[in-house]
Write a structure and sequence with these properties.
Chain lengths: 191, 191
DNA sequence: TTCATTATGTACTAGTAAGTACAGAACGCA
DNA sequence: TGCGTTCTGTACTTACTAGTACATAATGAA
């Protein structure tokens, strides 16, 4: 019926993610995405809308990836304590300079004062809420494991804070041993 | 001997700090700083150098302010545990949307992939190192307070991580009660 | 083969921001 | 008062970037 698209939108979102993650939203120009993806601007605009909309699509895709992985990790048939430790441990490469110093695209975006606040904050809020829900649900389900007075809701939030802190400090490329030591110490809150 | 400066550089750095903190480095134009301060661009360039240099001066000044306050708070003649709790508690207004949603200028800058990396990272690294040293020194000095096997070095780093996490999540304007609950739970690591 | 439709690539517009040239103003000193 | 020096404000240049107009290419259907 008409000329078909010459690129896979998902591939382009993947490339755009890398560029945005590396340089941040503001500092990334569409020309750079064009150069990296080989897709010209009019095609990008036709497929994704303007720069803000493209970034939101990239970010949502990023969120979905992490949430999917969190669901799988936290659903494992091991004690909650162990599942959560594995989940946190999985971030170590991103917290320690092993996979660059980019930290977390979502946190980097949240701390960027320049982004279109309304939509972006909604996306990040939704992501954080869902992540915290996963942690909370797991802690509640296994609450019998823990000592009396254990509060799964506060603990879920504390883990979110530690997670955010580790990824915010990732930009300093800390040694992975230190990251691991922090995770161990925080996990002792659950023992 | 010559025409005197018509503005106080420190006032301008203070104003520039507010603008940079509000909008981020990239999204802040020198025209905005000119508008906010009443100082024209050539004077800014003469006094501070280019935009990067201006930002570094603003950031160093910000760091010094927080370090000074941390020194005072942590030097108080109370148990280390209590001094650190007070230090963390002092950030609550900046962690909870009470004083806007700007979080911490240093963390916001660290997560911004677009900044001149060499100089900026050195400044932030130095700041974090000095802050962590203050915490570590205080914990070491009072280590007798804590249980056996207590590791002041790891604990100092964990507190840095929590601090960074709270300020990274500040952009979601969490309820100050939740922030306080997290601080309480983390402080229980020291009990 | 021809047409309607949708994608593509080139080349453009418009706007903005960093940085500066230059003329003139404000000072201390002689 | 006149001079050298340093600061100030206007107006500019240069460069980059978001977004788009338009001609053309590639498809399926008739």
């Amino acid at each position: 019926m008409a000329r078909p698209r010459s690129f896979d939108p998902d591939d382009v979102l993947e490339i755009a993610r890398q560029v945005f993650w590396q340089k941040g939203f503001q500092a990334t120009s569409l020309d750079e995405i064009t150069a990296a993806s080989g897709v010209a601007k009019p095609s990008l605009y036709a497929a994704f809308g303007d720069k803000n909309a493209l970034f939101l699509k990239v970010l949502d895709r990023y969120h979905d990836g992490i949430l999917g992985w969190a669901e799988r990790t936290l659903a494992q048939p091991v004690p909650a304590c162990e599942a959560i430790r594995q989940w946190l441990t999985g971030f170590i490469p991103y917290c320690s300079g092993e996979k660059g110093q980019r930290g977390c695209l979502s946190i980097n975006s949240a701390t960027d004062g320049s982004l279109d606040q309304a939509e972006l904050r909604k996306s990040i809020e939704r992501y954080n809420r869902r992540l915290e829900e996963l942690l909370r649900a797991r802690l509640r389900a296994d609450r019998a494991e823990f000592r009396k007075g254990f509060d799964p809701d506060v603990t879920a939030h504390t883990i979110m804070v530690v997670h955010a802190g580790l990824l915010a400090l990732a930009h300093q490329r800390p040694d992975s041993k230190r990251v691991k030591a922090v995770i161990d110490q925080v996990m002792s809150l659950l023992a």
